[in-house]
Amino acid sequence: MSVDIVEIENLEKKYRKNSVIRKMNLTIPDHKIVAIYGDSGSGKTTLLNIIGLIEKFDNGEVTLFQKKISNISKKEKLQIYRQDISFIFQNFGLVDSKTIYYNLGIAMRFSYPRMSKNDKEKLMLDVLHKLKLDNLSLKTKIYKLSGGEQQRIAIARVILKGSRLILADEATGSLDQANKEDVMNIFKELKNDGKTIVIVTHDPYVIENSDISYDIKNLQ
User: Fold this and answer.
1) 113 close to 105: Cβ distance less than 8 angstroms
2) Which of 59, 67, 73, 216 has the greatest number of CB atoms lying within 10 Å of its CB?
3) What sequence ranges are listed for the domain ABC transporter (predicted)?
C-alpha cells in the first residue's frame, strides 16, 4: 500500500518581510517521480531545501517518513538527513579538483562505514557500469568530465548513498536531449527500486515523464 513520504500543511516561509511560500499544502507518495515546476523565484528551490532539512520554515508543518519535523530532535533530523535524503544539485555539487573515487566516497561514509577500500571500489565500478561510465577511471578528476558525465557521477553518488528520498534541483538543466532521456530512465529505475524522486524543473520533458507534476502556484 502506498503511503505519503512527504506531507506539507499550511507551510509558510519568509525572507525578511517577503513571503516566498504561503500556506502551501502538498503530499508526495512514495515510489513516485514528482515534478514541481513554476516561474523563477516562485519558491521551488526553497521548498526542496525545506523538505531536505537544509532550510527552516516559519509556520505550518512538514512530515517526513511519517514523522512531524517540529516534534523530533536535532539528532534525529541529522540522522534522517544523512541516511534517508539525497540531493542532486543544479551545479552537480561535486568537488571539481578531486577524483571520482573521492566524490563517490563521500556518499558512502554513512551507508557503508566499515566497507574495505577494495570492496568500495568494486561497488563504485558496478554503479559506473550501470550508468554507462565504464570508460572512466576512479582516479579521474571531476573537472576533466563533460557535463553529462558529471551529472551521472552526481547520480552515482545518490545510488551509493541509498537514500529513500532523492531531491533534484534542475537535474537536467544543462543536458542535451539524449542525456535528459538517460537521466529520466535512471530515475525510473530508482523508482522501481523503491525510491521517491522529487524534481524541481522548468523542463517540459521532465514534467511530461514524471508520475505526478505540480505547478507550485497551485499549491498555495
Assistant:
1) no
2) 216
3) 6-219
Q: What is the largest CA-CA distance in the chain?
A: 53
Q: Compute CA 69 distance to the chain's CA centroid, rounded to the nearest angstrom.
A: 19
CA distance 78 to 42: 27
Amino acid at 203: D
CA distance linking residue 191 with residue 168, whole number of Å: 14
Q: Is residue 1 pLDDT above 70, yes or no? A: no
| 142-177 core/surface letters (b: 16 or more CB in 10 A; e: else) | beebeebbbbbbbbbbbbbbbbbbbbbbbbbbebee
CATH 3.60.20.40 is right for the domain spanning 4-219:
no
Element (H, E) at 4: strand 4-15
Do the beta carbons of residue 214 and residue 34 sit within 8 Å? Answer: yes
Per-residue pLDDT, 64:
96
Angle (CA) 103 105 111, round 5°: 130
The ranges assigned to domains in the chain are 4-219
The backbone torsions φ and ψ at residue 139, rounded to the nearest 5 degrees and listed phi first, read -85, -5
pLDDT band at 141 (very low <50, low <70, confident <90, very high): very high
Give every CB contact of residue 205 below 8 A, 6+ residues apart in sequence. Answer: 172, 177, 180, 181, 184
- What count of other Cβ atoms lies within 10 Å of the Cβ of residue 3? 11
pTM: 0.91
Place of cell 553518488: 157
